[in-house]
Amino acid sequence: MKTKHLLLMLLAVLLIVSCASTRRLLIKKDDYLGWKMADFKMLTTSKDFSNYLKENYHLYSGYGLKMILIQEIEGPNNMKMKVEIFQTRDRNDASGLYKRYQSFSQIRVGDAGSESPGLVCFYKEDFFVKISAVKNLLDKNNYLVNMAQLVATKI
Question: Quick one: 137 exposed, middle or buried, by C-beta within 10 A (0-12, 13-18, 19+)?
């Protein structure tokens, strides 16, 4: 009985610690003036990953996904962007996810980063991050790059 109770307490502590460490990655209203997080989802199971990634699941599933954090960020003039943060087993897996985007124009963010119109990607440590324009942001990649730099400091 004591072992079962101790195991449940340990599981609860691990859940609290992982949620707290994930919470640091969320964009708060004071992080980027004029921008705020409108919505977020945290996915942690293979079934959730498959449902979210749909036909692209096979491209991501071999890279040891541990968590996907999706945030929708709203800014002035009805601008919106989506921030997708993929936590993997290790740096090699994060780098592997990034490799598909490394042919874009290189930027200095994280361990390696790149951009194309409406999209900024980078990896840092065991995280691969993809930030995309959703509404009124095409041809305004400076907002996406600034958000990428902000997210990189949170990792």
Answer: buried
